[in-house]
Amino acid sequence: MTGPLLPPPAPDLRLVPAAILSWLVAIVGLTLGWLMAFVLAGLALLVAASTALPGRRTATHAPGLLAAGGCMAVVGALVGLQVLLLGGHPLRDAAEQGSAATLRVRVAGDPAPVLGGPGGFGGRPAGATQVSLPVEVVGATVAGVHWTVGGKVLLLAPKQGWAEVLPGAELTASGLLAPATRPDLTVAVLRVRGPPADATPGPWWQQVADVMRDGLRRASSEALPERPAQLLPGLAIGDTSTMSAVVREEFRTTGLTHLTAVSGANLVIIVGAVFGLVGLLRGGPRARVVFSALALLGFVIVVRPSPSVLRAAVMGAVGLVAVLAGRQRSAVPALAAAVIGLLLVDPALGTDPGFALSVLATGALVLLAPGWVRGMRAAGVPPGVAEALAVPAAAHLVTAPVVAGLSGQVSLVAVVANLLAGPAVAPATVLGVLAAIASTVSPILARVLAWVAGPSVRWLVGVAHWGAGIPGAAGWPPPWRWLCCWSCAAAGGCARSR
Hints:
Blueprint: H1 16-32, H2 34-51, H3 62-87, H4 90-97, E1 100-107, E2 112-114, E3 130-142, E4 145-147, E5 152-158, E6 170-179, E7 186-192, H5 204-223, H6 226-237, H7 245-253, H8 264-280, H9 285-303, H10 307-325, H11 328-345, H12 353-378, H13 385-407, H14 414-438, H15 443-452, H16 454-468, H17 479-496
Parallel strand pairs: 5-7
Antiparallel strand pairs: 1-3, 1-6, 2-3, 3-4, 3-5, 6-7
């Protein structure tokens, strides 16, 4: 007979203030300007310098203050410098004047449908005639003047001719410039009318990923009914190009949209499955680590290594440490270090909603979910079921304010829908990824795997359809009432995690 389980060690929170304050500095600099970023960086540097004085080094709070001040100073200086340089970019004035321009660019992400106008999904049409495309500028020509410059530009282009463009390809685009409105270090927006010119093929890994994505779409459409076939590519590899307006709306209403966006959760599922499979085959710790790392790399290639995917890979790796190793204490500083590192590499992530959702969801996975799992297991909930219930509930609890702010509404059925959907997500994701890989060697095997994933995908479609049909499912209660309910739920959730 075993004795009572000892409580887990308290998480190491020493790096958390540094991560939060660095993030706040990045947000302030991106939204309020370079001067505020430099001011905050200077103040943080003074705090760090005063903490490093000989008489204060031994204080218990000194290491935390030194880390927070140093990280804030570096992130603030980087943000301030980039915002300052952005203001002097030659395309900024041209964008303010609406000038015509020809840009040589390198594609930085997948084309995303632009749904605008009345009458369809969320007041938007069912079909999109335009796509948005993030690019990095290589050179620009405006009014006969050529610059060899860098910078981020957002292309708004016709769907025809642009929807198949691969990340990493270089091409020439011509159109009218417009000012950028988002505080994410984007220089300008280019409204393109014609097709891309002088396009180069994307890197080999992007071409491989494109073949796999096409194979999964084809296998899904041949093996599954219409709606599940639309969902499986988005669920497995984040390819939502075939999702109809109806399916999008139902998933948005029920708070399940995050399932179709590549996130740290996808990577945890895939790498966790490989980790467990190698363990079942009697592989040692080194073999588990090697094959898990290969699975992580391969999944990033399949879904395309865009900045958002690389961010998710970092967050997913942190979550994987927490779930597989069960070391909550070491996972928290790893998450904080990942936040600081990503902000240093790309300060524009400070105002990226996807970054916020990834960090918050991973934080819930690390801090809240383990305590909830322990409580449910103590109450007799079987292992596996406890994780399937705790992880989506914790993630939804902490991301609800961000999702509400982005969508302008609160899904009143999201918690129940996520709990019902949770058990089906992992098998559908794993089988979908396997189908994408198999499509390169055997289309028949790909169709079989997609068919096997069918029950899970049908369940998810059914949950979304059921939730969206509930009257007032996506209602927006009075802000004070919703905030009080969320605060009580958050306080209760945090208390149960201890």
